[in-house]
């Protein structure tokens, strides 16, 4: 079970390729390995840049016990939209500059007994304005002559985030429970399905986001005056996720095709669908080619709007009007397209793996109101090395 990552700059952290998982090749997997990787994320128009460094290990301790862990260092810098426009409700997207680093580490143990594999885990990450501690426990049960695997587990995160004033730290809690099933349909095909329920509570707003707010009666030159106020999201969010995938191997082509679908819903009012297709194609015995494409679309959050109006007390400096609101483009009605490829080269008896990858990411608005300049488009490059024994 994967522990939730901090969501303070969720878009950027999620867009980093999971280098360490990709460095585990489909063929010739060994009991032990170490891996390292580098990812480079660059948005168009010189907006955000992220450099990611990763290290991973997987070590068998005994016939029934093994451990694996990873360390990740992220450096982010550049500009990101605040959610407001230069003309109040028209004009270009206002940007704010970000510069931060994130260090994250996690460790898991796999303990096999009878037909069970019990996996406890611990994770930690730290940014200048966000810290996270997480624990997880999962179990995988083999039955039906090892053709069926039942998985279930939970994770709990204890996080802290700084508010917009950059001095106050507020707690955030995230809980997830998951149950899933993996079924071998034939010697060459496998089906997976998983259902996840989650709850987030505490400080869920993004301190870098603002909303355009029009004070009641504030008319200048016949036009409504708009000012920037902090966004405020609900302090609770429930979410449900259904994930399903099927992988089919084609012996005559020495390739496998993997397709997946993910449905998401939360109490913010967001419904989302994700489709992904990946081809794993061997070119001889030492080159693995993996092109893929992913499409995603979502509805808007109930409290999302380009601008808001209401009473405002000008007598109070930096007045923060009450109410739930957000002009964060990531909560608007949108879709994304992500496509790319990965090449893995195996050498020295398949124990040394080199990996290079590229993908293109684009986000696009669908509501006809959100400024198109809010949505990012980026190139992502990855390289890595894995040693197995």
What does this structure look like?
The protein contains two helices and 22 strands. It is mainly β and 389 residues long. It has one domain: monomeric porin ompg (Porin, Beta Barrel). The strands form three sheets. It has a 17-stranded antiparallel β-sheet that branches. Strand 3 and strand 4 form a beta hairpin. 28% of the residues are buried. The N terminus is likely disordered.
Please identify the structural class as seen in this structure. Answer: mainly beta
- Summarize the helix and strand pattern as letters: HHEEEEEEEEEEEEEEEEEEEEEE
Low-confidence stretches: 1-29
Number of strands: 22
**CATH fold type:** Porin
Shape: elongated
Text of the CATH class: Mainly Beta
Number of structural domains: 1
Strand fraction = over 45%
How far the N terminus sits from the C terminus, by CA atoms, comes to: 25 Å
